Amino acid sequence: MTPAPRRGATLTRAEVVELFSRLRELNPKPTTELEYRTPFELLVAVTLSAQATDVGVNKATRRLFPVANTPAAVLALGEDGLKNYISTIGLFNAKAKNVIATCRILIDEHDGDVPRSRDALEALPGVGRKTANVVMNTAFGEPTIAVDTHIFRVSNRTGLAPGKDVRAVEERLLKVVPAEFLLDAHHWLILHGRYVCKARKPDCPQCVIRDLCRFKDKTTA
User: Fold this and answer.
1) pLDDT above 90 covers what percent of the chain?
2) Which of 100, 121, 166, 205 would bridge with 221, disulfide CB 3.0–4.6 Å?
3) Of 134, 156, 128, the residue nearest 33 (C-alpha)
């Protein structure tokens, strides 16, 4: 019997295509679990989501957005008024300060609109590369990938795009993910990391890409 060929540490091009094909079949139209209706609402929600759960952010924004969902309306609340709505979220003091400062910049420099460029987004208080990528991708349809802890873990475990830090993983993903999957890739990978390829105990028996994955310590049923 001929032994199976040894596989490399990273997925082949064909395996990458197969991986995303399977994730797409499970979830043809993935999107963020943050609730939003406008680019501004998404920007605020993503800003609030740092070191917080999407569930917790959604609970707060369900109260906030019916009252204030534009830069002018949030600015009218003031920092203390905003805190009343987001006080259940971690780091709410710093986040309230950043959101209020962002609203001022949006009004003064962008006519109240959320800018579409990375440089303009990253110039907003509390907005880093990951947040900018989420807004560019989800609000404006740009083929960016926002690497969070879930994507970093999945990319390294599976052999999809190993890297020593989030920027290295992002740059590698942009190279290896085929164009047809690029727009939705980060949603598929986040959801896979959140619900299947979990940090402490990945649910390998239920994983649709387990045969492709290079993770050595797969769990058993």
Assistant:
1) 95
2) 205
3) 134
Which residue's entry shows tokens 């807004």? 135
Question: What single letter denotes the amino acid at residue 184?
Answer: D
Place of tokens 């064909």: 14
Taking a C-beta distance cutoff of 8 angstroms, is the pair 61, 32 a contact?
no
Active site residues: 130, 148
How far apart are the C-alpha atoms of 175 and 195, rounded to whole Å? 25
CA distance 96 to 79: 6
Q: By the 8 A CB rule, do 4 and 198 touch?
A: no
What SS3 string covers the chain?
CCCCCCCCCCCCHHHHHHHHHHHHHHCCCCCCCCCCCCHHHHHHHHHHCCCCCHHHHHHHHHHHCCCCCCHHHHHHHHHHHHHHHHCCCCCHHHHHHHHHHHHHHHHHHHCCCCCCCHHHHHCCCCCCHHHHHHHHHHHCCCCCCCCCHHHHHHHHHHCCCCCCCHHHHHHHHHHHCCHHHHCCHHHHHHHHHHHCCCCCCCCHHHCCCCCCCCCCCCCCC
Buried b (16+ CB within 10 A) or exposed e, 23-33: bbeeeeebebe
Task: Enumerate residues 6+ apart whose C-beta is below 8 A from 25.
Answer: none
